[in-house]
Amino acid sequence: MNNLNDTLPGLMHRATENLEPVSTDLLERSLQQGIRLRRRRTTILSITGASAVLATAGLIVGGTQLFGSPSGAAVAGTTSPSAKASAAKPTAKPVTPKQTLATLKSLVAGPGRTLSKPESWGETDFAAAAYVVDDGKGASRVEVFVAGGNMQDPCAEPGAKCTVRSDGSKLFTATEQPEYTDGRQDEYGVVNNYVVLTYKDGRQISLTSYNGPAEKDAQHTRPKPLFTVAQLAALAENKAWKFPPASVSKGFEGSKALEEKKLGKTTK
Q1: 196 touches 205 (CB < 8 A)
Q2: What secondary structure letter does DSSP report for 136?
């Protein structure tokens, strides 16, 4: 009989010798797109129970294929006792990015305003959308981000400009903050107004208005953003916004993680 210590390394080598490494091109493109995205906003690390169930199911199926059906397995045509137990009650349907885009459009549209370049992106745990709004005095990109819960609270940062409201929610505001921290700020001159409204139950919505048609790599087209901080706060408070179910959002990674979340951003 061959020594197991001698044969095991050879078996492992043959099993992995044809595996290909992660495409460096894909990785590079993902990183480049991530760098373009906002650093200061927050996101959610979605750790859904469904993912765990699927992973467990995959292990069980794989084990069955390798080692055969376990003893006592149900015979074809018989009723499994677990069939009824597995039936789950329907949960609330998550808001879609398209719905968020439609809500944004309904709230920022108005007489004399032209809307263009609609964008929407998201997953089951968050939804985001953007429009370029021009009131005849210059274009302004307007973005919105909604999440169901467990988001990073910007008011927890030292020195944050926040207001605790009568309903217990907290409003974070930032006025005309520069987009860049280096020489590009002098080149492009883009600034933004930014608000984050966090409710007591964890729901969160943020809105940003720029003084240009894009967040980065574009010249500003007006002295100040179209919407003031007060106007953005009023938009955030609007009851028209729909949020993902709180049960979907399981955690957060901080501002850098939003860059990775937004890699799936698409133009609608």
Answers
A1: yes
A2: S
232 close to 209: Cβ distance less than 8 angstroms: yes
The maximal CA–CA distance of the chain, rounded, in angstroms, is 86
For the chain, list the domains and their CATH numbers.
Answer: 97-266 (3.40.1000)
Instruction: Kindly state the helix (H) or strand (E) to which residue 30 belongs, with its residue range.
Output: helix 24-36
Give the angle subtended at the CA of 207 by the CAs of 96 and 39, to the nearest 5°: 95
Neighbouring CB atoms inside 10 A of 6's CB total: 8
Residue 180, phi-psi category: left (phi > 0), alpha (psi -120 to 50), beta (remainder):
beta
Q: Strand, coil or helix: what is 89?
A: coil
Q: Which is nearest to 115 in space by CA: 129, 125, 126?
A: 129
Using alpha carbons, select from 128, 153, 123 the residue that is nearest to residue 141. Answer: 128
> What would the pLDDT profile of 218-241 be if each residue is shown by its tens digit?
999 999 999 999 999 999 999 999
The residues, any chain, with a CB within 8 Å of residue 154's CB and separated by 6 or more, are: 42, 160, 162, 172, 196, 198
**pLDDT(191) > 60:** yes
Count of Cβ atoms closer than 10 Å to residue 201 Cβ: 12
What distance in Å separates the CA atoms of residue 41 and residue 261, rounded to the nearest whole number? 11
Going from the C-alpha of 168 to that of each of 49, 77, 164, the distances in angstroms are: 30, 56, 6
pLDDT, average across residues 181-187: 91
Which one, of 78, 236, 81, lies nearest residue 146 by Cα?
Answer: 236
The per-residue pLDDT for range 108-163, each reduced to its tens digit, is 999 999 999 999 999 888 999 999 999 999 999 999 999 998 788 899 888 899 99
